[in-house]
Description:
By secondary structure, the protein is mainly alpha-helical. Helices cover 53% and strands 0% of the residues.
Amino acid sequence: MKGAALFLAVLCAACSVDGGDDTSAGGETPAETCSRVATVICQKLLECYSAEERDAAMLPASMAECQTQIEGDLECATQTAENQCDEGETYDQATAEDCVVEYEGLTCEVVREGIADSDTPSCAQVCQ
């Protein structure tokens, strides 16, 4: 279950590095990007861990429960361009999209072993 906790921590970090204009070139707001990250988290948790493992780790049992919990944990509803990147940094929507795609492509083996920064290199580059 250490892998599940690490997975959540890393994905939470990816969600919190959004910013820039309230609506990106693709029309997605920081809150919407956060919700997409929450969806990926939930998909990976449900795909990579059995119901028994999720129960033992006190992880959400269903997609709906997971989505509600993770979006709340990440405070997706309150994410705006003004509260995401550090002062002096600029948000890059294309890199944010790459970050989400990298998480979507993670195998269960990687998720269960623990996600390294090298597995999702774009995520560290969203705010520069």
